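Kindly draft a sequence, keeping tokens residue-aligned:
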Amino acid sequence: MTSDTDLSPDSQDDLPEPPMEGPGLFGDPSPPAPPAAAAPVAAPAAVVAPAPVVPAEPSQPYRVLARKYRPQDFNDLIGQEALVRTLRNAFAQNRVAHAFMLTGVRGVGKTTTARIIARALNCIGPNGTGGPTADPCGVCPECRAILADRHPDVMELDAASNNGVENVREIREAVRFRPTQGRFKVYILDEVHMLSGAAFNALLKTLEEPPPAVKFLFATTEIRKVPATILSRCQRFDLKRVPQEVLRAHFARIAEKEGASVEPEALAMIARAADGSVRDGLSLLDQAIAMPEEGGGVTAEAVRDMLGLADRALVMDLMEAAMRGDLPAVLAAMDRAHERGADPGVVLADMAELTHLLTRFRAVPGLRNDPSIPEAERVRGGALAETLTIPVLGRAWQVLLKGIGEVAESPDRRAAAEMVLIRLAHLAEMPTPGDIVRRLSGAAPVPRGGPGGPAPSGGTGGGGAMAEAVAGASVAGASVAGASLSGPSMSGPGAGGLRAIAGGAAVRALVAPEVAPVAAVQPETEVAPAPMPATFREVAALASGRKPMLHAHLVHSVHLVRFEMRAEGGRIELRTRPDAPRDLAGQLTALLQEVTGARWTVSLSNAEGEPTLAEQGRTAAVARLEVARSHPLVLAVMDAFPGAQIREVRDASLDAYGLPPPEVTGDGEPVGEDDIGFAPLDDDFGFAPLDAEPAGMDRP
């Protein structure tokens, strides 16, 4: 039972006041305690009891620089000019959207920007009559409550731990009520990409048509994981990485406010290690300021040891030694880096960064005057870039890029890094693929548009013949048994030849250079008959493009027994395989009658006949490969490059079936497969020119 004394006003006044709330997210100190009321003057005779000893208030805990110098308004945001300009104009024109999506890497100001927007939406100004503004005052009750994370209408949720549909359902129920204190209800969802699929779907309708007094601010580092249906309902802002120059100046201002002396080179190292993140850079700066003794300055050497970096001069020494193939100097420089505590993976990463810088110097020489690049790198790097070529730098980049992964997976990181550097130094002495081709061909490269002009078409030297051969191979189309499908016409000199492509590709008539082009045929004019085919291969070429299935059977399913051409027509005897159609002879007869206008007789025979055109092409390809393997220059190349293989032998004189043209030698005998070979070795040139005719096939 409660007594009257328990409910008296005097007893309630004697109760201690509840403590004030602690500091908010921004680390604001608690407000000072109200002054104690003056004690009444006691009577002279009364004895005043001594006041109890109050323990000293503990000092405020240290706030790290990333929290102490967190931006309070849009003026403090650095490196996000486009974002600040857009939001300022939106507040000035009263066009503030109901949902924002802020994305970017860690530490660029996504959550900070969301909090500034929340203050800007609810600020009422120092006099309490202001409206939404891009420059919140910071002194009104709304701003102070948001800064201390005590505002009832600004709710910041971590979507990583509140990612269920139940959490989104609570938000949907809460948005139906008007704000309790502020002008707008603001929901800040950090790492919104962690919401589940059901949670995203539950949020769609509310996000599309929220109440007028509700704003959503989303922040994420994985924008690709956010559904497109969510993105389409938000205004998206991509916060970019802060440039190193801006970070360096920002860190210098903070160091000056903290009363710390930091060398400019140390600030540059911290800005480079921050990789565009302000928070990461401030954490490193905080650690660096705590390194020296009280009153001492932060030196570049101390920051280098803290970050585990190698000296930039040491990295330059490593690159120079590796590019000249000096293995003792490479290993000695790596030992010095290891003694200084540099991480092997970081050393290779620095060398890759230097390789990229040298490649930029080589590609754009004007970058050597860029003041943002340290002078040592501009001077030594520019001189080193003059001695290296783009192919050499590209090869070094590939080796280092692959080596960084090897070091990360190796149990002994130092040994793995040394193996990568030894490989890089060994490759520095080897020529590039372009140099190998020029040395084997014996021809100097012909510059495009140079003093001598381009190499003549069909010439035997340099890039002209090679360019022509590559172009001819690309135009010819497919190949049979690994042979190139380019070559002269199959119908002999003086006549419009036929270009056949195995597999049923279209037939294209090629006219010799000395023959004048034929005028275009009018539609009503009768089409002239095609030239009479002189060989069975030309008969098969007639079917290419017109009758693809017939052409395929003529190449793979037909053995030629006899071919005879007459003035009024011709006679063909064939042996067909079981997979050939029964009316193949009739189809071929009708085709020849239609194309040539002459009468042809096609009959079937049981004689053995010749191999099929496909079998002949495969046999010829094998023969060319064997001849290539025994060629002296090829043997020399195989000895120089162990493990190399010959995959393909290309001959521009072969037809679409990988066979030489059916011509005769000076003795009147047809050319056989044994007559195919390479041109004789010329000590002054090396390989035969790419457009040279094979041995034994010289035209009369």
